[in-house]
Amino acid sequence: MSPFPSPRPASAPRRRSLLASAAGAALLVGCTGGSGSGDPGAGPSAAERARARAARDSEELAARYAAVVAAHPGLAERLGPLREEVVRHAEAFGGARAGSPTASATGTASAASPSVSARAAGPGDGSGDVPADEKDALALLVRAERNLADRRARALLEVPGELARLLASVAAAGAAHVFLLTEG
Fold first, then answer.
1. Angle CA 64–121–184, to nearest 5
2. What is the spatial distance between Cα 171 and Cα 167, in angstroms, rounded to a whole number?
3. Torsion 114-80-141-89 (CA) sign
4. What is the pLDDT of residue 8?
5. Comparing C-alpha atoms, which of 107, 143, 106, 111 is closest to residue 127?
6. For an engineered disulfide with 37, which of 33, 78, 137, 174 has Cβ 3.0 to 4.6 Å away?
7. CA dist., res. 107 & res. 157, Å (int)
8. What's the pTM?
């Protein structure tokens, strides 16, 4: 007879309890579907809220581009393609199609001359005035694009797969816009 006790009896209950705990945890994880589990009384899921916010942010950014173009018509050729891409981002998130830059700008820009600062919708950062100087107006767009791209990159951790991929793609496009706005 060995003076050391057999490890088998002591380990058997631990394995069973471990397996039972793991199975229970898997069931709990599988049962917690969140608020978007089809309950008609439940509010929108976190993914739906994130998608709506992303669409709204893109629409506001498109309005900011339109306001800059309205205040500085000389930038229209340079900013037009970027604005159109931002509009497509809003559509991808489920937002409404915005009108042409001049049509949307008339609703957000003042009727004053381009040298006077115009008011534009902004992504909640309080920087809605379009500066009279073109370089400052471009810097405004750079800040808006950078802030929005950073916010979307942080939101990736809180949304499911397909929406996370869309947010990552749009955040990368925003970073490319920053590069294009600061170049030349």
1. 20
2. 6
3. positive
4. 54
5. 143
6. 33
7. 36
8. 0.63
CA distance 152 to 146: 10
Phi, psi of 119 (to 5 degrees): -100, 135
Q: Of 1-10, 101-110, 159-168, give the range with the top mean pLDDT.
A: 159-168
Average pLDDT, stretch 132-137? 94
Environment class of residue 126 by beta-carbon count within 10 Å: exposed (0-12), middle (13-18) or buried (19+)?
Answer: exposed
For the stretch 25-59, pLDDT in tens is 333 333 334 444 445 555 678 889 999 999 999 99
End-to-end CA distance of the chain: 86
The residue type found at 174 is: G
Please compute, for residue 136, the number of CA atoms within 13 A of its CA located in the half-sphere on the CB side: 11
